[in-house]
Amino acid sequence: MKTEQLVAALVADGGRAGRPIAATIARALAAGLAVSLAIFAVTLGPRVDLMPALETWRFDLKLVLVAVAVMAAGACCLAFARPQSSAHWRLCVALLVVLAAGALAAELSVLPRGQWMISLVGSNALVCTTAIPLFSLAPLVGLLLALRRTAPASPMLAGAAAGAFAATCAAVIYAFHCFDDSPLFVLVWYPLAMVPAVTVGAVLGRRLLRW
Prior knowledge:
The chain is an all-alpha fold.
């Protein structure tokens, strides 16, 4: 069978395969996150002022940002696991970009200019850039193993999407410990902390997800 015929057959079967692929990815992610949550519980744990923080708009906005990032990364991971991806993931990414721009504009409008750099630097940058990659490891392994059962058109891109999915989920976990709630901090340091998982995912995906 020629490559074009194989791709066409896989695409034609996309409707029936979509749910199993999603279920496989979800199970792999859940298993990895269980490990990450256990590590989180014995290392960092939630911040001591979690309940009061939930009543502040910056902390709530931080949770919304990372949750939408998970949705966008998950849509990319699911789309790139197939021989041909739909355009739905673009809508999720666009929503994340719009939300991030709105959060940044809101912060800059209420925060005095002299506080911008202080809020951007924050107090937990080192912890952030260490914890998110650490909490990404187990989910990334699970996702890569799950994606080996799929037929991505671009193994590298699928691996990178898996890394982004794992890293955004790790960011959700870390967000409950992080004391820096400013969108300035979140939109700079959280993405930087996700780079290692995305890079590792792309490199491993290129080797492990070939078909």
